[in-house]
Amino acid sequence: xxxxxxxxxxxxxxxxxxxxxxxxxxxxxxxxxxxxxxxxxxxxxxxxxxxxxxxxxxxxxxxxxxxxxxxxxxxxxxxxxxxxxxxxxxxxxxxxxxxxxxxxxxxxxxxxxxxxxxxxxxxxxxxxxxxxxxxxxxxxxxxxxxxxxxxxxxxxxxxxxxxxxxxxxxxxxxxxxxxxxxxxxxxxxxxxxxxxxxxxxxxxxxxxxxxxxxxxxxxxxxxxxxxxxxxxxxxxxxxxxxxxxxxxxxxxxxxxxxxxxxxxxxxxxxxxxxxxxxxxxxxxxxxxxxxxxxxxxxxxxxxxxxxxxxxxxxxxxxxxxxxxxxxxxxxxxxxxxxxxxxxxxxxxxxxxxxxxxxxxxxxxxxxxxxxxxxxxxxxxxxxxxxxxxxxxxxxxxxxxxxxxxxxxxxxxxxxxxxxxxxxxxxxxxxxxxxxxxxxxxxxxxxxxxxxxxxxxxxxxxxxxxxxxxxxxxxxxxxxxxxxxxxxxxxxxxxxxxxxxxxxxxxxxxxxxxxxxxxxxxxxxxxxxxxxxxxxxxxxxxxxxxxxxxxxxxxxxxxxxxxxxxxxxxxxxxxxxxxxxxxxxxxxxxxxxxxxxxxxxxxxxxxxxxxxxxxxxxxxxxxxxxxxxxxxxxxxxxxxxxxxxxxxxxxxxxxxxxxxxxxxxxxxxxxxxxxxxxxxxxxxxxxxxxxxxxxxxxxxxxxxxxxxxxxxxxxxxxxxxxxxxxxxxxxxxxxxxxxxxxxxxxxxxxxxxxxxxxxxxxxxxxxxxxxxxxxxxxxxxxxxxxxxxxxxxxxxxxxxxxxxxxxxxxxxxxxxxxxxxxxxxxxxxxxxxxxxxxxxxxxxxxxxxxxxxxxxxxxxxxxxxxxxxxxxxxxxxxxxxxxx
Length: 883
Hints:
Layout: E1 2-7, H1 14-27, E2 32-37, H2 54-59, H3 64-74, H4 86-96, E3 105-112, E4 118-124, H5 133-143, H6 146-152, H7 155-166, E5 174-178, H8 185-194, E6 197-202, H9 206-219, H10 222-228, E7 233-241, H11 246-260, E8 279-280, H12 300-316, H13 330-340, E9 344-345, H14 358-367, E10 375-378, H15 385-395, E11 402-407, H16 411-425, H17 433-443, E12 447-452, H18 457-460, E13 471-476, E14 486-489, H19 495-506, H20 511-520, H21 525-538, H22 542-552, H23 554-564, H24 570-582, H25 585-595, E15 602-603, H26 604-608, H27 622-633, E16 639-641, E17 644-646, H28 649-659, H29 661-681, H30 687-699, H31 705-720, H32 724-741, H33 744-760, H34 764-781, H35 786-799, H36 803-813, H37 817-836, H38 852-865, H39 868-874
Parallel strand pairs: 1-5, 1-6, 2-4, 2-5, 6-7, 7-8, 9-11, 10-13, 10-14, 11-12, 12-13
Antiparallel strand pairs: 3-4, 15-17, 16-17
Helix pairs in contact: 1-12, 4-7, 16-17, 19-20, 19-21, 21-23, 25-27, 25-28, 29-30, 29-31, 30-31, 31-32, 31-33, 32-33, 33-34, 34-35, 35-36, 35-37, 37-38, 37-39
């Protein structure tokens, strides 16, 4: 195998990387390594191997430029076939040219290993340039005509001969070429023609990254690959990364990965990225040529980086290659377990789009001390816990030597994850891999262990690392990790972030359309992603999608998620947890009740302290309620919000779908009873209870008498809060419902309640309008109520000083004058008592004098039978209906 080390610009540590990789392959892998100093304009690769005065000796040896010049001089005397026969020419050169092994110079003394294998490092230098030879060397390099060499000296055949010499088993196991920087003919030979793998090194600035990007594309042009006749793999290695500048480093990492991720060779895909091969900047190595690998005072991070690079190069070799055999060497695996693979990762690929999580990422980073308590990300299924953990592992990868991801959904899968980690760390045969992995965590710092999808804290805790010298990040639907991990909730997205997600996924720019979809799906990340994927696949617009959702509800979302085809549909994710809830009757019933209420938090005290409702008797058993809540929180089906319980609106929609019409009706009726009890016994109105009362009424059938009673209670509480328009609308709904299916008692009660609200608020104009409508409706639908309503209308007209209109109503409907006067007096007395706390008989300045005595007697009879508070409050709330 030939690995060519290339850089678009100088100063990136290319030669140093090559030298350290060569040393690692020699010391650790036990290989025979040949390095070639192809940087003829700036030679000196041997300076990294200073023992025994070798650098000076190497500079006196003939090298690459001498080989080229000698070949050109000898070419006329060689017996070569016609130029067109390339293969025959290479074969002839192999027979007539001196083998390359006679031209390489040892940098490390060859060592015979116990298995009989020889290891060593040799160099083919740039050329003889020591002392007085330097002038001749520089002239030769500057005057060498590379294009002419190809055109007139059978250059292609010569370099093919050289390539075969470098890969010959007689010479070495692996060859490393230090190529020239930038664009050059000499660099092109080392990369395009000789290399099996090109290792492009670059620092993290735009010139380097863009230059390397352009050169990798140039190396992979179809005509180049056709001329080679064999595959070419390329690596891009970021260098001189400074871990002390974490924010800048993470920004640069994002830029680098965006421009290079598509260049990953196939053997690396899904296993690691180019970023995993990064080489840090260590100042003490900036001032002299020195090796880190094998040195007693070596910087551990730098050694780990060169080891990662070396082992990756080995893994790219084809099966059967000499260099690949070292992967099975016990000594190599032992070293890799402690140093070589100190940067091991199996973190899933970074997700292309993650919005609205910057605050959480920063919070996680700050919560993680150098080593300390594990953190659990919890939340509703599909909220983005796993996505957040993936992003955290990628964004802060510079902080960790090992970042390992384990499926923690069962003890068996956790054990399997440890086995895989132990293998990646290079566990020695005969060791227990699980114990080995956990011991490794105890012995090392700077690692991240992600346990994804953990459900049972008590089951997982014994499997977690005992010594917390690194960071443990857990994802779970359950928040119950007290004493084991610090719980951090992952909520659904904020509205603005949900809008941003939809905009970026769909390209839609209309704010109202974007916000409408975001709110319709409760800002839930996975639901929004499934919706966008469905629209993308079907070509539907946001408006069309929302229309279908409005018509079909959760069932449509379920189909949309299934058609996405990822195997992680939201409905299926929730249904799995819902089936577990069904096994727990109190939890099942509590979820059924909560699913028909509103999306706001439900005050627990408000719905659990009143007269029992038969279908929800468990609400009056505090221990049972607590156990049900614990069960539901295990899956984040309920969240603790503002002293109550909250079910996400989208989850509630799915629960109602799974319940079916009959059970939804059952729980709606139950909800009406529970909230009626809560409103009836509450002294101070609770806004949340009012919201849920409205929500549950909206789900009831129009013919529900219990719903009309709840509407009456709801209106009273709204009036207490001063929300008169809301109370009026509530009573209007009660009237509408009572008119549809119910008897005259319910119609009269609803209309009277509405009227009393208008009278109490002294809205005589509104009272007159509704009464006129009621008289017309009663005449057509319920004639026996017409006179009762007409009495109220006459009273309103009298209180408005519209005596002529009142008289016409009285005459038309044939109402006894005394009845109207009694009603007037009772209203006046009630209002006076309401304001002053006492009552007295008012004068009826405009009443007929001959009726005054009769009216007074009738009023006194009524007042004698009723206490003051009944007159002042009960009557005004339509509880008193004098005939």
